[in-house]
Every structure is written in C-alpha cells, then in structure tokens.
Amino acid sequence: GERTALNVAGHELALIADLAPHPGDWPKQLFAIKEAAYKAWFPLTRTPLEFHAMEVTLDPLALAFRATVHHAATARLGDAPWVLEGRFGWGEELLLAGAVLRRATAT
Questions:
Q1: What torsion do the CA atoms of 37, 38, 43, 46 make, to the nearest 10 degrees?
Q2: What is the mean pLDDT of the chain?
Q3: Which phi and psi (to 5°) does residue 89 adopt?
Q4: Cα 7 from Cα 70, distance rounded (Å)
Q5: Which one of 16, 33, 48, 87 is most buried, counting C-beta atoms within 10 A?
C-alpha cells in the first residue's frame, strides 16, 4: 500500500483520517506508537517486526492504544496473539508513547 516517509500504511492513514485534529501530527503520533510497541516487543522476543506486522487501534479520548502483533514468531512464543497496550500524548514540541507487552488470553 501507499506509505508516507514515516512508514504509515494507507489503511492506517484512513484510521486516523476521521479523528479530531491533532495538535501535533497524527501520522507522526502513529509512528511513535508503533515505535513504542516495537521497543516493548523486541527485547523480550529478539524478533524484528516490520511496521505492517502490528495492527493498531486507538482510543483518542483515553489517549490509549492497542497493538496486536501479526507475526509468525508469535506461534513459538505462545498460542494466543500478543497484544501491546499503551498510552500516548503530546507536549509543546513532543510526541509521547509508551507500551507494555501482554499475551492475550484465548477466549
């Protein structure tokens, strides 16, 4: 799909298109979210991820996100999908995001 210079895919741009204006920049915020998720994922798994290997959903009112990892490595790490949850925000000249890695329980 079409990508910006920040590796945000076209379907991700559609995800943020309907959100209220961001005081910073939604594509950059999404990049920061994915980077935070990756930095929680990699030290525990030692498995690189491409940006398209995780699906992000946003709750802009709670300034929260959820990133589900879609990668073959999750099979060797456990049966259920791996989910990263986090918060995001911004300051005068900052975009912030932090994530924790949880293994989703099978339902």
A1: 140
A2: 80
A3: -170, -170
A4: 17
A5: 33
In angstroms, rounded to a whole number, what is the distance separating the alpha carbons of residues 79 and 9? 27
List the beta bridge partners of residue 66.
57, 85
Q: Which residue shows structure tokens 């999404």?
A: 30
CB-based contact 79:105 (threshold 8 Å): no
Residue type, 14: A
> pTM score, two decimals?
0.79
d(CA 17, CA 73): 31
Each residue's pLDDT tens digit, 2-24: 444 566 667 777 778 888 777 77
Pick from 64, 63, 55, 61: nearest CA to 83: 55
Residues contacting 29, CB < 8 A, separation 6+: 16, 22, 88, 90, 95, 97
